[in-house]
Amino acid sequence: MVEILRPEGNVDDQDPGLQLVHLLRAVTVELDLFAAGFADLNGLHPTDVRALIHLLDAGRAGVTATPGWLGAQLGVNSASTTALIDRLERLKLVRRERDTRDRRRVLLAVTDEATTLGWAFFGPLINGMISAMRSFDDEELTAVRRFLLAMRDVAAAGRRTQRQSAAER
């Protein structure tokens, strides 16, 4: 029998916090479905799309992206990471580059073609989201940002705990 876990304490379906969790999940599902549409249209696997997102985020943050780093972000082994990079490279969405400081190390970069392809598909969605945000004042956007950062951190901590539990079994 599957045990159904309920939120801690006296939280019910009318709890504002639980309602926000459900809304956040609904946004996540919609974004995942949108990304799945992009993957289908371009012959990609959902993991390929997540890899491209990680690589784009790394580029914006100034993080050096290597195959090992990408595999860790995706939670996949090195053989799967190599196959994924090979696939994205064949599609001209990612390129491998030698590190100029350490020629043994391979760096990953998203190609201009991938960026153009992504903007063509996701641009209207992003522009719509930015437009919707304009109805919020700076104080509200600051609160939303704080909320989303906290939710991201809770989700990341949960994923780490889940991975540790799986490794201990």
Which properties best describe this structure?
mainly alpha; 69% helix; 2 strands; 169 residues
Structure description:
The chain is globular. The chain has helices spanning 16-41, 46-61, 67-74, 78-90, 112-133, 138-168; strands spanning 94-98, 106-110. With 169 residues, the protein is mostly helical. It has six helices and two strands, in the order ααααββαα. Strands 1-2 form a two-stranded antiparallel sheet. A hairpin with a 7-residue loop joins strand 1 and strand 2 (106-110).
Tell me briefly what this model is.
This protein is mostly helical and 169 residues long. 69% of the residues lie in helices and 6% in strands. Strands 1-2 form a two-stranded antiparallel ribbon.
* Tally of DSSP helical segments: 6
Strand residue percentage? 5-15%
What share of residues is helical?
A: 55-70%
N-C termini distance: 20 Å
Which of globular, elongated, flat, extended, rod-shaped describes the shape? Answer: globular
The unreliable regions are: none
Gyration radius over CA = 19 Å
Question: What's the mean pLDDT score?
Answer: 92
The spatial strand order of the largest sheet comes to: 1-2
Structural class of the secondary structure composition? mainly alpha
Write the layout of secondary structure elements.
Elements: H1 16-41, H2 46-61, H3 67-74, H4 78-90, E1 94-98, E2 106-110, H5 112-133, H6 138-168
Antiparallel strand pairs: 1-2
Helix pairs in contact: 3-4
